[in-house]
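Subject: for your reference before the review

Hello V.,

The reviewers asked for a structural picture of the protein, and I figured it would be easier to keep everything in one thread rather than splitting it across files. Below is the amino acid sequence we used in the manuscript, unchanged from the supplementary table.
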Amino acid sequence: MTGVYEARKKSGEVYYRASLTYKNKHISLGSSSDEAVSHAMYNEASDVINNPDNHWIDTEHRTSSYNESMVLPFGKYISLINFRDNNIYIKTPIYMCHKYFLYFLKENEVLQFSTDDLFYYSNHTIMSRGGYYFVNDYGMQTSILSRLGVRNHSVKGKDYIFKNGDIHDYRYENIQVVNRYNGVSQLTKNGRVIYKSRIHINGDYILGEFSSETEAAIAYNKAIDMLSGLINVTYTPNYIEGISSVEYASLYHNIILSRNFRKYVKSLMGR
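And here is what came back from the structure prediction:
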């Protein structure tokens, strides 16, 4: 059948690959053990590229004309429409827009990204598990939030927020990181913003309240150093950007951690 090629698995079992050539590019559409199904994929793909009135993407509402009765895979459907409309073939289910792009995980699950991320997500498949979005990067599961400066285990609404309230809008300008550092939380006290530093050791120990986020982050690092060798827990220190080693050392020296924490450390040393 047109657009269908017979192939064999290592076991010798026959299956059928569907493919299509469009704008001088050979595109694999999928495969099936049924030749008629593979042929249907080819026919649907041909219809997508030849009948834009029947096959479209609504960028405003982030919807598409995909029909669940179709045999053409959903991701391939999106890629073909993007190729047809924007003259760029992308293997992942991306549709390019002006200054942003849409990534279609499912028909009703579409993420929005800044164009700065286009190359990355053209080469990385996004997966979803319980609202957690991640990619496999060098064999590791990496949250898509990490590209936006959001730490692992950060809490939505506390450590970071979606400015426009749209939890599927991952454009850089829409993500506001509130708490960038481990052990640091921002709060308002008596009308002014302060930063509280704490560390978890069989419960939380407050390390102190500071006027700057940097001081609070360094306080956390100092607490880690004081606990080193005393308890069998591994902490991740904060990497402080934008200050020199001399400035860091000065702040580190002048920071005095809370009395309760120092008392706890002293008790560990006396064991």
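For the response letter, the relevant points are probably these. Residues 75-176 form one domain. The first helix runs from residue 35 to 50.

Happy to draft the paragraph if you're swamped.

O.
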